[in-house]
Please model this.
Amino acid sequence: MAARLLFRQLFEKESSTYTYLLADLGHPDKLAVLIDPVDRTVDRDITLVKELGLKLVYAMNTHVHSDHVTGTGLIKAKMPGVKSVISKASKAVADHVVEHGDKIYFGDLFLEVRATPGHTVGCVTYVTGVGSDQPYPRMAFTGDALLIHGCGRTDFQGGSSHQLYQSVHSQIFTLPKDTLLYPGHDYKGFMVTTVGEEIVYNPRLTKDEETFKDIMENLNLAYPKMMDVAVPSNMVCGLQDIISKV
Model:
């Protein structure tokens, strides 16, 4: 990784969600971004940002989550000046909506936006940039599109096994094989994988598309217990309760 990049992987245990903090230590203000913050751990994240002397500029979501409430709205309330980010395709409220090919800058470092729908219609993957001053190996924050030796479900929120298969193969598996992949969740204690590892060992996405579709249609997963609360809240930056009382 580039010496100028500060990177922290954080965990929220109730939903097994990973939050990622990235900052440009080479910038005078040490500009930073948070990817997929959770409402329950906002105070932890803000404390860490302050202790490390960073200036948080963006609180970003990879998609509209169904298993937890995003922390972006609370972070904005507690840290004026921070902007929320989500994909335009998600149709959710945010200060900055992004599309495929956009770049999110924090100092001289940046994240490239790659559209990876399939788990939801609005899923994106954030990938570190290419250049002598950018992190190496590259890093991709895949949300729920690609998990470690797995992938997100495709049976709600406009999900599509066809779209997910195409997204992963065209936008993630085409990255250099040493690219580090950081998922939105893990339930088995794993923290990171690589493109090369997933191309060989992912038990679903190594199959042909028809087999993949059959696997996804027969997962028989339970309805997410937080979905009816999380999705409406996350469509408005996690602040449904606040907005409804105004």
